[in-house]
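As noted in the main text, all predictions were made from sequence alone. Below is one such record, for Gfo/Idh/MocA family protein.
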Amino acid sequence: MKKTVFLLLVFAALQLSAQKDPMPIGVAGLTHGHVNWVFGAQKSGDITIVGIVEPNTDLAKRYMEQYGLSMDLVFDNMEKMLTKKKPVAVTAFGSIHEHLAVVEACAPKGIHVMVEKPLAVSVAHAKKMEALAKKHKIHLLTNYETTWYPTNHKAYELLKKGDIGDVRKVIVRDGHKGPKKIGVQKEFLDWLTDPVQNGGGALIDFGCYGANLLTWLHEGKRPNTVTAVTQQLQAENNPKVDDDCTILLTYDNSMAILEPSWNWPIGRKDMEIYGEKGVVYADNRHDMRIRISEGYDGFSEEKFKLEERKAPFDDPFRLFTAVIRGEIELKPSDLSSLENNMIVVEILEAARESAQTGKTIDLK
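Prediction:
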């Protein structure tokens, strides 16, 4: 009896150990400036990069030298990498247009996928990706930098607790001086400012953050209407796409203003949530304030300096591995979920149409 119990305990320990081995990850593309994130994530031990797809040999050599990795990891096409290396999951760091091809290659093999924001360049692409994910029962996540901001999660908590009353208006501002001005690498700039490969300019690149947050704050509800205005203020740097945008979303009892731009003098990702009784300011990743109304223009204010969230809710690759292992189940409204990000693509496409036609687009 004792021997049986001992063997069961050993077996359970071995299972636990195996479950916690680093997740074998493939990387699809190296042209996205956020790709450093996945190389840095290897240090945590949650993932291990087993293969990389990048046809640009010079670009691949640069990254392999930077991170002390072998060119033996690099393949010139997806099929070769998937067949030889057999990753459990793939993270996409190419253009947004390429996301569909990544899912088309991975889903039939049962390989999970996480893409950088946004999910897709169009609703048509997104629907194909969604159908493949559901048919082949893979997880398809979308990663945003702001998903990991403790301030956004504290703001959500305060809103749901009713501390500022029912929401009436949300303002989300995202962006920087522009890709060329901040010096992004050429391979990134080439597709980021291409209307086909990126789907647009600042409207897509930074409008997706606000659309993602608003869908989360509204528990997965799509807006009733979308109205957008775009401008091109840096024609010399962004000749093919918009670089400044304002998007107005209406809901049953509230309104949201998204201000994505490549013309901010100072880089920013912040959010203001106005309720009936007060307002929450998520000023950046760690700093936030809550003001409660007192009289006409008076208020009491509390300030917060927040620590990073606890694992696995502090990092995209930790969350991805936890979801794959069944340790976490995402809600449909969650920031990384497929359902949330299908709505994000709907909002972005409606905004693009609104800006082109000068009309409000009805999503209801």
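The first strand starts at residue 23 and ends at 28. The chain has two domains: 2-144, 146-362. These features were considered when defining construct boundaries for the mutagenesis experiments described in Section 2.9.
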